[in-house]
Amino acid sequence: MAQRPYIVGNWKMHGTRAMLSEARAIDRAAERLTKVEVALAPPFTLVHATRKEAGLIGVGAQDCHPAEGGAHTGDISAPMLKDSGAGFVIVGHSERRSDHGESNELVRRKAEAALAAGLAVIVCVGESEAERDAGKAVKVVTAQLEASLPESTDCAEKLTVAYEPVWAIGTGRVPSVDDVSEMHRAIRAMLVGKFGEAGETVRILYGGSVKPDNAAELLGANEVGGALVGGASLTAESFLGIILAAAGENTD
Ligand code: PEP
Q1: What is the pLDDT of residue 250?
Q2: For residue 148, which of 72, 82, 84, 107 is within the disulfide window of CB 3.0 to 4.6 Å?
Q3: Which pLDDT value is given to residue 249?
Q4: Where are the domains of the chain?
């Protein structure tokens, strides 16, 4: 059976409790748009409240520490996220990699900690503009992914990959559909090489300046199983435009 498109909103460091009204509106729409699987990753401070306010959509977090607990001031562990109502966690987002110097190895340990806590995990990868210009994008991204994925070959069903070209995040620029297709095919081949048949079922999201007016085209690219959306997920109105596009409903 074909999988439903998976549309995930990453609120980054945005949102106070006043924004829960957006989550509620997204949740109400998701009740009607059953052809699409919708999720939100609000900041840690809103995970529990979002879970309570929005009962139908998935709710997750944007990062976790690789340890279960301990002396790590300011960090949050995967079991804590699970306890607060999260169902998944994003790891390896390019803003974590650049702001906090996260290596592939650390991302892999975070992904493994998330799985051990019973969370699903979205592993993010993406090339820089210089790497794309040098013709190295596919090589860089597949190597990054290989080193960022959990070692176990038994976790495909809990895993989602997000391909997010760094130069497309928050810039309004997007790769061509052909470039997205080429990358997603290469990621699929890598996943099948690692997980065998189960690698066919891992969803590969595209992320980077997805908006209501380009969503249908990007979601139509080869092997694209959904979208990871930053800026356009901050209001129900724009996020719903993307969800509608994923559902195949005209937004005109
Ligand atoms: C993101 O941060 O994951 C993202 C894709 O951001 P934006 O949609 O704003 O480019």
Answers
A1: 63
A2: 107
A3: 86
A4: 6-14+19-90+102-229
Question: Quick one: pLDDT at residue 243?
Answer: 97
- Block residue for tokens 């509608």: 244
Residue ranges of the chain whose pLDDT lies below 70: 1, 250-252
What 8-state DSSP symbol labels residue 65?
A: B
For ligand 1, is residue 229 a contact (CB within 6 Å)?
yes
The verdict on the CB of residue 22 being under 6 Å from ligand 1 is no
CB 231 less than 6 A from any atom of ligand 1:
yes
What pLDDT, on a 0 to 100 scale, did the predictor assign at position 252? 55
Residue 165 has a CB neighbour count (10 Å cut-off) of 27
Options 93, 102, 127, 131, the catalytic residue:
93
pLDDT at 251: 58
The tokens describing 202, both together, are: 């891992």
Q: Taken in order 174, 41, 128, 92, is the CA torsion positive or negative?
A: negative
Task: Please work out, in degrees rounded to the nearest 5, the angle formed at the alpha carbon of residue 7 by the alpha carbons of 6 and 12.
Answer: 135
- The atom number, within ligand 1, closest to the CA of 12 reads 2
**Is there a catalytic annotation at residue 184?**
no
Q: Is 207 in the pocket of ligand 1 (CB under 6 A)?
A: yes
Question: What is the pTM (predicted TM-score) of this model?
Answer: 0.97
Helices and strands: H and E segment counts in the chain: 10, 8
Would you state the pLDDT for residue 139? 98
Name which residue sits closest to atom 2 of ligand 1, judged by CA. 230
Contacts of 82 (CB under 8 A, 6+ apart): 117, 118, 119
Mutation pick for ligand 1 pocket among 6, 8, 10 (CB with most ligand atoms within 8 Å): 10
Query: Could you tell me the distance, in angstroms and rounded to a whole number, from the CA of residue 71 to the centre of ligand 1?
Result: 31
CATH number of 6-14+19-90+102-229: 3.20.20.70
